[in-house]
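Teaching assistant's notes for section 4

Start the section by putting this record on the projector. Ask students to predict, before seeing the second block, whether PAP2 superfamily protein will look compact or extended. Collect guesses on the board.
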Amino acid sequence: MRVRETARGWTAVWLVVLALVQTAAFLLVWRFAVHTELGQWLDTVALTGNRIGQDRIDGPVDRILNAMSVVSLLATTAVIGFIALIRGRKALAVTATLLIAGANVTTQVLKHFLVRPDFGIDPERAAAGNSLPSGHTAVAASVAVALILVLPAKVRVLGAFLGAGYAAVAGVATLSAGWHRPSDAVAAYLVVGAWAAAGGMLLLFFQRDTAEISPTDAHRMAAAVLGGLGVLALAVSGLALTWLAARSGTPADELTRRPLFIGYAGSAAGIAGTIGVVAALVLAVVHRVVPRVKG
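Reveal the predicted structure now:
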């Protein structure tokens, strides 16, 4: 029993660290992308670069984004809660629902209260004001993370990769459609990640005495692959944006096709990489916060 309590304590510490790190990362992204001229310029270049080949992807992008509505979110949340309930996990059903609701409400509150200074870098969208974090991206990411929590261990890895892929596509779609800046999508993933860590702590608090942590449910290799792909994508994004930052003296609408494409593609890689890392962190610890139950 003492060993089990110690393991639970270390898991709780790890979840607190994850929540704090992702909150700090959100603040850094917000501060750099919204309150510095370089950050606003990089976002603007990515948005300007989305015009390259846009006519070929307008249809699929619109279908992806238009499928995300309040009704679809409520229906998906109900399905996720139902999966937890048919597994006999009432606390899990409540936690998954709170995660989705909390992440999306937090996103809307932040978007409303955060202020975006106008440095004259993106006059075309200056009147729109702040758009960080992205609501559509938060919807997709919160559903993906909640799905990782509620799915049985046998299909959890498949759900993690499909969910992360869907959330990545949704985030890139908001950029491709010109609805959101890339930093908006990255910030939304970090909000969801922080809520996932908080949800994990809640599940630990209500964990039954009959809980049995099984090493076979750890999915270490799958989490390492998903996280590794995410880190690789973030590295590619960092290299692309570093190369682009050296040209920050040029207005975005005066850049040639090459830097515009690098800005767009590098930002898209950063979006995909962020959700890959967030999903991997959830997958790596889910067997401890949603363990098997004896009997």
